[in-house]
Amino acid sequence: MSTAQPAPSGDRRIDLRFDDNRLLPLLFGEHEQYLARVEKTLGVSLISRGNQLTIAGSEDGAEAARSVFDALWDRLKAGLEVGPAEVDAAIRMSMSNDASLRGQALSQLSDPRGALRTKRRVIAPRSATQAAYLDALAANELVFGLGPAGTGKTYLAVAQAVSLLMQGKVDRIILSRPAVEAGERLGFLPGDLKDKVDPYLRPLYDALYDMMPGDQVQKRLETGVIEVAPLAFMRGRTLSSAFVILDEAQNTTAMQMKMFLTRLGEGSRMAITGDITQIDLPSGQISGLKDALRILQGVEGVGFVHFTEADVVRHPLVGRIVRAYDAAGRAQAAEKAAERGA
């Protein structure tokens, strides 16, 4: 319940009242740290008195703060946890410029029916783009998740795969990556094939162990229900009734990408993730990911979701690092353009 009116300073003022005092410490955080987090990020003033919270700030800031606390409160009422990650996610979503996507994302954050359930945790989107990505994974047989590190594109694809496996909608999960950034040369590494490949596929293992108990992951790996394999070993296979993920796809060649895409069999889904600004192929070689994006635009059943630095959900410093590198890249491109024009 809330009321809104102009504040004496000309700013917007909104009064929120909550009907369960037992949940307020979880909403505000220890020593009201979540209130401070919202104040700093959205540029608003927050004052709590009993079960009432007063928000004062600009029109946009006050409305964003209202949406943050509405979503977090609904999440608590639904029996879901609220921690720093969820607070940051709600803030990030409230700042989306797309009103429809913003509302959809906040609804998924607060509604357990919109979350993915795995053995170890319930996973909800932490940005508006993540919400769109989860919808795309549910609606399409082939989805490309594109963007910088830390946006959750691979993690959410694994979560979707685990969720569908638990529901019996797929029989197995297949995870793949170009094993060596520019050519899959595995022979110089010691050990058998698994020993050679594991270091390159560790991020996929990490996601699996975050969603399922370790003994269950190990059992499914041993029985082949979960398969982790380098891209080079996909040729000639037809992957049926499986959720197939290709990670770091920017480092595939055009031929490798076509080979991989044509492995899709009956009852299967594919998620392909990558960052086209981080291509490690030899100079002059076309990235299979960039080539596929050009060729598959408009093809029915294929979804494309583009993440930006605003969607980075790791440590806040990661987002600032990504933005700094993007700014440096733009400046360098501008300098080169100016030199060509001189």
What brief labels describe this structure?
342 residues; Ribosomal Protein S8, Chain: A, domain 1; Rossmann fold; 6-stranded parallel sheet; 4-stranded antiparallel sheet; 12 helices; 12 strands; 45% helix
Question: Can you describe what's shown?
Answer:
- It is built from twelve helices and twelve strands.
- The protein is α/β, with parallel strands linked by helices.
- It folds into two domains: 109 residues, Ribosomal Protein S8, Chain: A, domain 1 (2-Layer Sandwich), CATH 3.30.1370.10; 215 residues, 3-Layer(aba) Sandwich (Rossmann fold), CATH 3.40.50.300.
- The strands form three sheets. A six-stranded parallel β-sheet has the order 9-8-10-11-7-12, sandwiched between helices. It has a four-stranded antiparallel β-sheet with strand order 1-2-4-3, covered by helices on one side.
- Helix 10 links the parallel strand 10 and strand 11.
- The longest helix has 26 residues.
Task: Show the helix and strand layout.
Elements: E1 2-6, E2 12-17, H1 24-28, H2 33-42, E3 45-49, E4 52-57, H3 59-77, H4 84-94, H5 99-110, E5 116-117, E6 122-123, H6 128-139, E7 142-146, H7 153-166, E8 172-177, H8 193-211, H9 214-223, E9 226-230, E10 242-246, H10 254-261, E11 269-274, H11 288-296, E12 302-306, H12 316-341
Parallel strand pairs: 7-11, 7-12, 8-9, 8-10, 10-11
Antiparallel strand pairs: 1-2, 2-4, 3-4, 5-6
